[in-house]
Every structure is written in structure tokens, then in C-alpha cells.
Amino acid sequence: MSYPRHRYRRLRRSESLRSLVRETSLSPRDFIAPLFVVPGENLRQPVPSMPGVDRFSPDLAAKEAVELKKLGVLSVILFGIPATKDARGSTSADPDGPVCRAVRGIKSESKETIVMTDVCLCEYTDHGHCGILDGENVHNDETLKVLAAEAVAQAKAGADVIAPSDMMDGRVAAIREALDKERFEDVAILSYAAKYASGFYGPFREAAESTPSFGDRRSYQMDPANVREALKEIAADVEEGADMVMVKPALSYLDVVRAAKESTNVPLATYNVSGEYAMVKAAGRNGWIDEKRVTLEILTSMKRAGADLILTYHAKEAAAWLA
Predict the structure, then answer these.
(1) Where are the chain's structural domains?
(2) 248 is catalytic
(3) What are phi and psi of 162, to 5 degrees?
(4) Is the N or the C terminus of the chain less surrounded, counting Cβ atoms within 10 Å?
């Protein structure tokens, strides 16, 4: 029997050989760990729909950042749940709010940790939408002023990276201008540039108490059917001053991640969102999948598609598995 000259299985015979020729590598340094922060002290509140994920008071968020650093995860992104909410999301810029307190605490406990802060109003408004309402519509330009104030407050607290997720038009430029005016020229912006109106966000909304009280977010988040529009959003945000851009969600949007990688030369992040995480956890707990293997395969697929950075609730466990 005649065989071809090339036998591709030759380089698959052992883990050492497979590792030698592996095209995509995954490291804890690729991960950004999302942390939910609540008012108070010494508080740790499990999120029922996201097994293994907790909400932390600022002091415990700082301790969690230290634990993540020990595992090689050097970046976190903070989401705040305030004590009070109003129609304008006024507490988003509170220097003594949970996010700003957590930023200061993390920087005190772990100077090497890169602290990113999510800038949006959905956690801070009593109606759950990502901006200020005009009737039942979100008023784009009025919202920009509040987002800019939120970003400045977080920068003053010591945030390294501001990450606007609201999907208002022009918000990167507004935030960049506000930061520069306050002499925070060195604070970077990671823009949620292509954020889709996805059904994968349900568990996050429970964790962040940010479910809209009416309607949905399809008038400002992107239509899941569109790719070219995502590239326009990304190009616009880079032009406005974004230092990094993001595609969200990740798993069902890997084609968008690849297209974004090919269209821009700034660092690219993707968000392995709460619904993606919860599905893996549910299937793993039921014994339907090998949770560790599937998790690492999913994260590797995001790197393979072109992501430089991955926001993921798996960050801590995946870092331990990779050690």
C-alpha cells in the first residue's frame, strides 16, 4: 500500500510534539477577570445563576485581585452596584461609591494589577437602561455628560483603563476629552466597540441588578445579524481615541472577532459573557461535558479567532488549570 509523503499524525503522537507545533497559546495574562462590587465591608454574595461568581464589597474585591495576581491574572474589570439609584444614574460618579473604593483598595493591595472600570449607567439607573431617558428613548447626548463624569471619577480613584460599554454614539470622544481636560492623558480607553443586543446577558443582569424595567436595548446595542456595522463602530471608536476595542459577546461572534482583528491594529478584546459561562457551568454540573476541557477549548477558540485579551468569569479557575 502506498502512503503519501506527508503524514500529519507524526506531529500529534505526544503532548510534547503537539505543544511544540501548537499555533495558539493561552495564558493567564490573556484574561481580564470581571468583579462585581457592592457597598459595605466583608461582604461576599454568591450569584445563583453564575456558580463560582460572587459579588464583593470593596475590601474583599481587593483581596480577590491579590488572589488573581498570584495565579497570573493581572487585570480586573469592575462593575458597581450602588446603594441607591435614580433616573440619571447620579451615583455612577460618586467618589465614595463601591467602584471607586474598590479601585483604591486594589491599587493599595496589588499595585501590579491593571484596574479597568466599566463605564455605563445601567447599574445606576432605577429604570435599568444605559442612559438618560427622554420618554422611553435613551437620550444619546445627555447621557454622554454623565458617562464622562463617571469616567473622571474612576480615573481620580486610580483606574488604569476606562471601559465604556453603553453604546452611545460619540462616547469615546466625550470621555477622552473629559479625561484629558482633567490631566488624565495616560488613562487608557478600552471601548466596547461592537456590543450586540444579545440574549446571552441574562445572568449578568441578575448579578449587576441591571435588568431594564421596560423594553430592551436594541435601539442602542447592535443587531446580532450585522458584521459590517461592527467594523464601522470599531473604526469610529479608534478614530475617537480608543486605545483598545472589544467585541461582545464572544462565543457566537467569533467571525466578528476575526473580522475586527483583520480591520484594526489596536489590541482586541472579547467578552466571554455570563450566559456563555452559565451554560458551561450547568452542563458541567450535570455531567454532560468535561467542564475543564470545554472551558479551555472555548477560551482557546477566542484567542485563535484573534482576541488579544479575554474578559471571562472563568479567569480564576482557568488560570489555575493552566498553571
Answers:
(1) 24-322
(2) yes
(3) -100, 130
(4) N
